[in-house]
Amino acid sequence: MRVPISWLREYVELPAEVTARDVARELIAAGLEVETVDELGADLTGPLVVGRVLAIEELAEFKKPIRYCQVDIGNPEPQNIICGAPNFAEGDLVVVILPGGVLPGGFEISARKTYGRVSEGMICSERELGLSDAHEGILVLPASYGAEPGQDAVELLQIRDDVLDIAVTPDRGYTASIRGVAREAATAFSVPFHDPAAALPPEETAESYPASVADPSACSRYVLREVDGLDPAAPSPIWLVRRLQKCGVRSISLAVDVTNYVMLQLGQPLHAWDRGKLQGPIGVRRAREGERMETLDHVVRDLDPGDILITDESGPVNIAGVMGGLTTEIDEKSTDVVIEAAHFSPEAIARTARRHKLHSDSSYRFERGVDHELQRQAADIAVRMLAELGGARIVPGETNLRAPVETPAITIRADHPDRVAGMSYGRDTVVRRLREVGCEVSGDDALTVTPPSWRPDLRDPNDLAEEVIRLEGYENIPARAPRSVAGRGLTPGQRLRRRVGRALAADGYTEVLNTPFASDRDWDSLQLPADDDRRHALRLANPLTGDEPLLRTTLLPGLFRTLNRNAGRGFADVALYETGLVYRPKRTPDGRPVPPPPRLPVDRGPTADELAAVEAALPDQPVRVGAVLAGDRDPAGWWGPGRPANWADAIEAARTIAAEAGVELEVRADRHAPWHPGRCAVLMAGEVLVGHAGELHPRVIKAYDLPPRTCAMELDLTRVESLAARVVPAPAVTTYPVATQDVALIVPDTVPAADVESALRAGVAGHGAGELLESVRLFDLYTGEQAGEGNKSLAYTMRFRAADRTLTVEETTGARDAAVAEAAERVGAVLRGA
After folding, report:
1. What secondary structure letter does DSSP report for 534?
2. Which CATH number does the domain housing residue 278 bear?
């Protein structure tokens, strides 16, 4: 919202010494977002005058049209000026800057020879003067301005002014008007405020244009007024045109300019129809299936049942609160005009504007909430301006349809703002500040507050407390440093996450942070079955983008998109990881979604029951760690060829994470999307499933356009943490030597190596030497002729060590033999060479 200070001063008795920057500073302190203070005309200097074109000589010897003009600027001798614009004629009034002047942007004007003539100044366009962006030709002043040659054009065109540019937040819709900002400025400076809508017009006994409202929930107030005999050629006066331009609105015609002026002045959007183009009574209703209409931007739109329409007997004539229809627009022949002022549902207007991608100044205000008591005043101001400026006659009568709108009173303790802010304001201050924002206040310790009609955002005691606090000044709230409690630091979970991050970074992984959003197509791209729990995701009420309206249930889609982006920019060897929350919605026993959590108060801590209700409604939010690898894991160089990343690297990343928690993982073959069915491992911690790792399915790689043979891992860190020892013991260090035993076993090629390792460990433990076994490591895989058809040979190194002695050969051999026997019994292993 752009607010000219000259217009603001009409409604606020600001002291003369108060500057625009002073106003901006006070409004910012009151909570408004003043983005800039534009000093219009500040960089324009020198003589800028009105001139009348006396003669034009066309210079035809040049490639483009050039005109040599004689211009009367009030001096005895006319001024000779070169101009290339063709949109003016002899006798027209124009704006001339004379030599020595400087136009906005530092463009200095001097008498100079050009196109074979001496040009003594410049005839200006609106853009060159900084009035607007119009640059189709020079500015021709209408005769209605009453300008005379030689008159000061700076004063005539009101070029110099200061304009505040305010970003209107969704809860402050009333500040999308001069009236609303003036009210805030008056409160900030403690000066009188003159409400431009204070004069309520008398009730009209006769009805104006006939209308009806079919859905009061869509439109709670509907007012129509009429004028006839409007002069369609009547121009908008200079003050009206300049006020619209300063607010960023282009002047179109008197009727349209008046509706825009009232909208900027009061914040109430208006619409004007050519009465002769309306066919029968007006109706306000929801759209029906299959309806269409052509809007003022010449686009035929398919309407949605959620859209609010204004109709006549021919069908839709307006998308209410958003844009008018082409069939009833005001044109250069319109003499009889119907003015509409309404209060539409903010939610419906917001959805319609987004649905049709059709945002207008009107929808901008309606969706933020307009004053539901302002419609009669706005329509009355508009018809009186048309009568005064366009010679129209106000048709007696008024259509005033109204549904009851309750403004519920709010009960608030007088010390509630004190408890919220942590400082003492006192009852008198609370009552005074609430009355300054327009509330009706009664009561002593318990106040009964009725918000004004222009503040639909005031709904509960905390909203009222915010009003008191902001007007008293956020800067006055004392700053107190939080007290640190001895003995507290990072939680075990926080320490674990830090250790995991350091370990993965040391392993060559780069951390990424992705947004926690996903789309429905991600589930298909991941090849998830229809009944997979990961397809049950929470849908956001107001997503940042329509492409990702869900909260993620897995980290993998975000990692895949990041990998795709890096690979597409030339990074062939990539290892990424992310630690973050996933969101798994809860369901009631009968499978329905749980109800939303209750709204908690801010003036006290929640009770145990309130916390339990919130906890029951929130989704499960486990911490996950995901990793993705592509390209070479070990780079190639002078030392030899590189080694491409494979499924084993993804599993090793999971082992690295588990090791930081002191948890040992068991790896088993599995089939689980989005991994390749033959190269997927399930990660178990005892009997608890904690994740999956392996090579991705080719269809998934294609869906996300990933490098071939991409591998990934996802681990539930919350589950790992629950299994972790609170104190991870330091590894024991002994001076006694290690004893190694190698064993090569022939097993069917369908037997996983992990099952063989598990059998070896169990055999050693059964022999009573479990505490002596340091590690079992697979160091060779052989599938040649000597292993036999359908078999494979797995060779393991078993390391034994005692903390108090040197082991004997008999001890290690006995433990090895027991391990081989157990493997033979469990998986049918045969000692190779036996």
Report:
1. G
2. 3.50.40.10
